Batch of 3 targets.
Target 1
Amino acid sequence: MRADIIRRIIRAYDDPIVRAYCWVRFWILRQRFLDEIGQYLPESGAVLDIGCGFGLFSLYYAATAPARFVRGVDLNPRRIAMARRAAARLAIDNVAYEEGDARTFKGDGEVAAAYMLDIVHHIAPDTVPPLLRRLHTGLTSGGVLIVKDVDTRPAPKRWFTWTLDKLMAPATPVRYWSGDELGATLRAAGFEVRRHAMLDFLPYPHVIYIATRRP
């Protein structure tokens, strides 16, 4: 059933280049990984998708939990417009998209959970700590921020990931964080943090951080 949801989401986009991009993203973060991440998201309540892009993952998490309301935020107006069209075609009404910068997000205590999937290594390092502090403020007490990103070790996996990042988005800057560095930054923002590797047959150094706002 969930594999069918992924296929339906991909078919909701007309642009063949975007559709190919969707296939690649769902190949990298396929159902097993999406469900591994999704286990930490509440079945109901407000969830924030930071850097939602074309809306692939927000559509997946909205479709798999109808009582969950997913709010996607992205700086790119074209991607937001395409995400809205895809949601309308799929008749998924528990998702909404807005153009904006998560660093200006003002939702004190309103969001039960938030997630960033492969976002941190694409944004300027000096903007990460204030972004995490802002998200900490926006979460309910005990709310969770899920960060999936790329570790710096082992080096061969890091270089493999860097090569694919550059092939998919040549102009986008890339700066990977070590597990210790990003974990410490999350703790400095006020979170309790657990992390573990997400093992894959592909040579990606996937890491998931489960960051909880202290009650």
Target 2
Amino acid sequence: MTQEQQRRNVLVVDDELPMRAALEANFRRHGWNVDTSAGPHDAVRKFCATMHPLVITDIHMPDGDGLSFMRQVQSIAPHTAVILLTAYANVSEAVHAMKNGACDYLVKPISFEHLQAGVERIMTRRGMQALGQDGDIVGHSPALLNAIARARQVAATDADILVEAESGTGKELLARLIHKTSRRCKQSLVAVNCAAVPEHLLESELFGHVRGAFTGATVSKAGKFEQAHGGTLLLDEVGEMPLALQPKLLRALQEREFDRLGDTHPVKVNIRVIATTNRSLRQMVADGRFRADLYYRLNVIPLSLPPLRERREDIPDLAYHFARKYMVPGRSAPRLSSEFLACLERYDWPGNVRELANFMQRVMALCSDPVVGPEFLDSLLSAEIGSKQDDNAELRPGVSLRDAERRLLEVTLRATDGNRTRAAEMLGVSLRTVRNKIRDYGLPRRSYA
């Protein structure tokens, strides 16, 4: 099931068959995937199997009451939206329900038009129509929703955008959201990671080359600028752009025109540029490591994304999102216990959403129980935190800067299982710098592939 389909899942719980059928037909007409249940006992099983973002339930049923079922849903997935239905209007019951987390309280016979309008309003407010892996950002926190709203607003323009945020926060996902909601959405979004391409190849990667431009150039090749014609060019980690190449990039951005390597005939393109960085380009300009004129040309519309520690209320949503994504085929997604989720929310996640995703992937690989309890934190996350605390204990007064830097690099490489690219992102430096440091400090290369 796709991400979009998952966001349109609703569970309808009512002991009256005609009402269930009417609700099911209404939601299917509006493009929802509908599961139904005649009572809370069966509904809990179905909810745990699918984790519906929306639940519609009657309050008074022979098999149990909807208020108790709502509390069970909230303990399993705190940010699922629950709408309560009843045939008996009761003011005190309605107040109690809304105070305890119900999104709406409707008296039968209900207006399906009113119900549908309320559903769309609730789901939009909770951020359920915003993005995961295929261009979707998961969460409902005000900080995140404000960033998404601003991104959607500027998507309507053709202005260049600079996204400055920490590694692992979802900068590329935000760029893809902007492209997806812009008038260029039918054309390509072409991405190039400025930190991953060797310096001597980056110019050709961006601007292309003609046959014979350099040794080995046996055929002409279009660069990323040319490939993005009519669409969007994503310059990922633009802070790693070599100083020598920055003037040519500046000209290409200003004129929307460039020369292929080895060619004297300029190529004109119609593109929108989104640049991302995990560094402060303003500080890099002050340090002489980034051209001021290029910075001002990129920074037409500045955007940012909050780190995960500043939107902790999104952690349960993200944990369930990754639990479903990484669950072992053939198994149902397990329930995440409240103790487990509380510990996740207390942790600072220095690697942001990417670190949480990797952690949940480990949990899903090791968990065969229907409930994920705090024991998985003891064996995984707690050990990780303990390791960091032990490592920090060695950073004491008198330790040389070189030894501290070497130790930090070793700790980061160990935390990323030797993944140099991930280590570079966490340290806020280029992949090239990590490679050089590994060589300079004589660290074993095979351990850090």
Target 3
Amino acid sequence: MPSKAGPELTIVVPTLNERDNVGPLIDRLDRLLVGADWEAVFVDDDSADDTAERLRNLGRGDRRIRCIRRFGRRGLSSACIEGILSSSAPYIAVIDGDLQHDETLLPCMLNILKQEQTDIVVASRYMASGAPDGLSSRRRVLSRAGVWLARALLKSDITDPVSGFFMMRSEVADKAGARLSGVGTKILIDLLASVPGPLSAMELPYRFRGRNSGSSKLDWLTVLEYLALLAEKMSGGYLPSKFLLFGAVGASGMVVHLVVLRLMLVAAGTGFVGAQSIATAVAMVWNYFLNNTLTYRDYRLVGWAALRGLLSFMAICGLGAVINVLVARDLYAMTQMWLFAGASGAAVGALLNYALTSMFTWGRRLS
């Protein structure tokens, strides 16, 4: 039997605890996209409020509603990528599930892509008639700083490169797919910096609304992920964002190590070997929990898995420390250059720790 052709438009909606918002969003899409053949793909990061169950019930009565439920991983950008790659439609939109984006722009975006030689249409809060009304004063400052950084570092003319609301031709995702990082929440920057060659873009102004329900997911860890993503894209992908975050955590661990070492030597009167051993163990625990919270927050380990991860992390870092010393020893014997030997040993140890803990502690393939 011949089957009906697939939709012309896929709307990708990343969700985390948006149960009360998904129904109203679907109703609005139904009213707005009359005459268009569309589907909505919700990518849910195992929400605690049963968002996925709500979507499953809605999907039973409407074949246009699909839900991809993810376990063991989180992150807005990576959720968007999974939804985008699940689509066969020639046009793909990304919109948040919190009702802050102005969904009434969707028909206009679709018409522009159909009629104009444009690759992507971006909804902008910072064009003349747009406004970030729904942002708190703190988020407004962070948003404008993020826009300024992205435009300066990536040399983009788009007024709102951190927008989470846009529509594109599927070819854009196909070209960028292998280069996408999937880090943090700024999927548009990831796309813009990952597409080889020129990309034609058009912007439409809109007013960013206040939340209907739920709470914002923005925190300072999100800001750090954003900075790491920009650094990765500026380096052409040679400095992965997770490696940069892993290195930053390691630097903080060195400070912790020295503070504990000093306290044990002076305040506790411990011998050097004992003090160094305690400081090393404390620094390892510090690095593990900070990496679990920051570097690998999208693969965060909890419960007994977190304890097993700690043991794995300390075992691997112990191996890295041995390799560090052996490499430094041999290089010093060959060159008599202590700084070069020490730095080289530390670099080899850090790379080994990053590679092995990524694969064995957090179970993540390197790319």
